[in-house]
């Protein structure tokens, strides 16, 4: 898929929101990519997962034994990536604040894992998920996401393959521009407020 085709999928699903958003990391932004909207159409989700999987070099792709993604945002794209790669997909979740495998999901020691996210902004959620996967015995050999919002700056400690990079500014709480601060921030994600 070309970048234009990918962006057309995002536009068609009205996933790009404008307003004042409190991101998972605690940073603020005037833009939010609501990937749940992109993934509402199962055929679109499948197309985007196939295109994301194709970003991973074949030699590395063939080593992947399991997909693990952080809930909630990672669940649907993780499942579709499992389908695209022909491996099982599971998710970590954080009912008590820290990611863990639940629901009978388990990894065997040394399982080679692809971490799959919907969006990476600061990489905080991805890094926390990697800690949980490694605590469960998995070896994270690569990460992938639909969107990289980090401006290419994120370091997850493993090779990272985003489908598309979208560079919207984000601001620390004490750096929010006055026009943005004039409207109350909404927090679309599920991470508990710090
Ligand atoms: O790279 P980061 O700075 O960590 O930001 C990206 C994370 O934020 C969102 O999740 P969120 O914690 O909002 O919860 P959700 O997955 O339930 O939407 C998104 O799904 C990523 O997991
Ligand atoms: O950083 C985030 O929390 C975030 C940004 C974004 O654009 N979309 C999203 O789902 N989460
Ligand atoms: Mg998330």
TrEMBL record:
Pathway: Pyrimidine metabolism; UMP biosynthesis via de novo pathway; UMP from orotate: step 1/2. GO terms for molecular function: magnesium ion binding; orotate phosphoribosyltransferase activity. Orotate binds at residues 121, 149. It is an enzyme of class 2 (transferase). Its EC number is 2.4.2.10. The keyword Glycosyltransferase applies. Belongs to the purine/pyrimidine phosphoribosyltransferase family. PyrE subfamily. Its cofactor is Mg(2+). Homodimer. PANTHER family: OROTATE PHOSPHORIBOSYLTRANSFERASE, URIDINE 5'-MONOPHOSPHATE SYNTHASE. InterPro entries: OPRT, Orotate_PRibTrfase_bac, PRTase-like, PRTase_dom. It comes from the Bacteria. Keywords: Glycosyltransferase, Magnesium, Pyrimidine biosynthesis, Transferase. Residues 48-152 form the Phosphoribosyltransferase domain. It holds the Pfam family Pribosyltran. 5-phospho-alpha-D-ribose 1-diphosphate binds at residues 117-125. This is Orotate phosphoribosyltransferase. Catalyzes the transfer of a ribosyl phosphate group from 5-phosphoribose 1-diphosphate to orotate, leading to the formation of orotidine monophosphate (OMP). One of its GO terms (biological process) is pyrimidine nucleobase biosynthetic process. It catalyses: orotidine 5'-phosphate + diphosphate = orotate + 5-phospho-alpha-D-ribose 1-diphosphate.
């Amino acid at each position: 898929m070309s970048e234009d085709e990918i962006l057309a999928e995002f536009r068609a699903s009205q996933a790009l929101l404008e307003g004042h958003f409190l991101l998972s990391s605690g940073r603020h932004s005037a833009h939010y990519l609501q990937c749940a909207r992109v993934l509402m159409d199962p055929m679109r989700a499948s197309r985007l997962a196939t295109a994301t999987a194709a970003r991973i070099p074949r030699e590395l792709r063939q080593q992947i034994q399991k997909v693990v993604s952080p809930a909630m945002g990672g669940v649907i794209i993780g499942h579709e990536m499992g389908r695209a790669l022909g491996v099982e997909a599971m998710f970590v979740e954080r009912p008590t604040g820290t990611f863990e495998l639940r629901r009978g999901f388990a990894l065997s020691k040394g399982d080679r894992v692809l971490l799959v996210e919907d969006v990476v902004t600061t990489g905080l959620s991805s890094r926390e998920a990697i800690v949980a996967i490694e605590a469960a015995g998995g070896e994270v050999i690569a990460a992938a996401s639909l969107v990289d919002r980090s401006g290419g700056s994120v370091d997850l400690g493993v090779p990272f393959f985003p489908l598309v990079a979208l560079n919207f500014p984000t601001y620390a709480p004490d750096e929010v521009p006055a026009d943005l601060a004039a409207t109350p921030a909404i927090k679309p994600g599920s991470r508990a407020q710090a």
